[in-house]
């Protein structure tokens, strides 16, 4: 968790102040002036940190998307697992401060324009996962990348939404769901026994051919 | 294909005229007046048929979403298959008139606001599939419904996008990808032999428990 860069303390204060005002008096009825004054910053500071009122609500996602991009770019032995770990990083970020996350959720739910922007934002994670998988596994059928990215994103959002609605959801719930996703793609390493002298490679039939190739190459070099 | 209700011939003409203008002179630069005059309808007729310029672009999706909703509501012996068939219906609709579909795609790609609205529209199919599965299979773990709906939608869009980019894509490509999706969820009926006297029910371990129950109940009543 400590690895995830946070927005500066100043902008975190602005986000908190804005969300509180949005929740109390409504998103539409809240002006930038009110937010700036509640957060103790100038109007121009606000506009330097955020493009507008909407951007305050989605500031965390910008930070997280950059974090996920950087995390994936580090290089990972198992790209499928890396995507799942990226999803867990995002979940942990919101779970670390559920009150702010819930306040944001309740604001977003009430404003159609914010709901739509959230759908678009969620899709940016999905596309990021998709692109990463295609790059990390040359020759991977795009259908496999697209499908796995969508599955992980959907599962992640469902578990996160439960948290945001007030449920106490442990990270283990998400992890189990992501393991399931990998199992469906035949890319969850199982902890079956291994022999010392003979290596027999067994791959589930539903594992993408490009992934089989990648794993064999990894073993043989 | 003939089962899918089409927008009235009049509104189809307006859509075609609008897409042609959008492609020639840009979405922003095209006025409602120009569309109405090119399509030979009055401004008030235009506004009666569509809420605004953007709605012309997404008019087909409104028709298709209603068609999918009605199709799923008919009741189906195999809900997983019904979702895949709904996806095929949507694909067939666009494949039947690829020129108009490609023109729309090229307009949407160039206008960020339209791209975002498309993402939101795609999500409406996903949510429809998700809700249908939960209703059709009582007790189904929402994670299974959410994941399968996302997988089908993502796979569908990938194949459709290939068509819209000018590739000749047959419906069989989509069907194979949707079969894969069902296989990953253990819900693709296989055509293995069947005995006459003894019924042995074998279910893949990864099949959702609620789906096993549903199938057993169906057999035993």
UniProtKB/TrEMBL annotation, chains A, B:
Domain HTH tetR-type: 8-68
PROSITE patterns attached to this UniProt entry: HTH_TETR_2 (PS50977)
DNA-binding region coordinates: 31-50
InterPro entries found in the cross-reference section: Homeodomain-like_sf (IPR009057), HTH-type_TetR-like_transc_reg (IPR050109), HTH_TetR (IPR001647)
Gene Ontology molecular functions: DNA-binding transcription factor activity; transcription cis-regulatory region binding
Record keyword DNA-binding present: yes
SUPFAM superfamilies: Homeodomain-like
Alphabetical keyword list: DNA-binding
Annotated PANTHER family: HTH-TYPE TRANSCRIPTIONAL REGULATOR PKSA, HTH-TYPE TRANSCRIPTIONAL REGULATOR RUTR
UniProt protein name: DNA-binding transcriptional regulator, AcrR family
Species whose genome carries this gene: Microbacterium pygmaeum
């Amino acid at each position: 968790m400590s690895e995830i860069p946070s927005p500066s303390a100043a902008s975190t204060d602005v986000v908190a102040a804005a969300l509180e005002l949005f929740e109390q008096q409504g998103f539409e009825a809240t002006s930038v002036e009110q937010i700036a004054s509640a957060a103790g910053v100038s109007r121009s500071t606000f506009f330097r940190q955020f493009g507008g009122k909407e951007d305050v609500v989605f500031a965390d996602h910008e930070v997280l998307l950059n974090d996920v991009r950087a995390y994936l770019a580090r290089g990972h032995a198992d790209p499928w697992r890396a995507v799942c770990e990226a999803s867990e990083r995002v979940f942990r970020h919101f779970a670390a401060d559920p009150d702010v996350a819930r306040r944001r959720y309740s604001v977003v739910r009430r404003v159609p324009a914010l709901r739509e922007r959230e759908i678009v934002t969620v899709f940016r994670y999905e596309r990021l996962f998709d692109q990463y998988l295609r790059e990390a596994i040359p020759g991977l059928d795009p259908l496999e990348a697209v499908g796995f990215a969508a599955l992980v994103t959907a599962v992640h959002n469902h578990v996160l939404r439960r948290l945001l609605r007030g449920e106490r959801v442990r990270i283990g719930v998400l992890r189990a769901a992501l393991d399931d996703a990998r199992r469906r793609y035949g890319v969850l390493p199982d902890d079956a026994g291994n022999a010392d002298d003979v290596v027999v490679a067994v791959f589930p039939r539903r594992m993408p051919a490009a992934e089989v190739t990648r794993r064999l190459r990894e073993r043989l070099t």
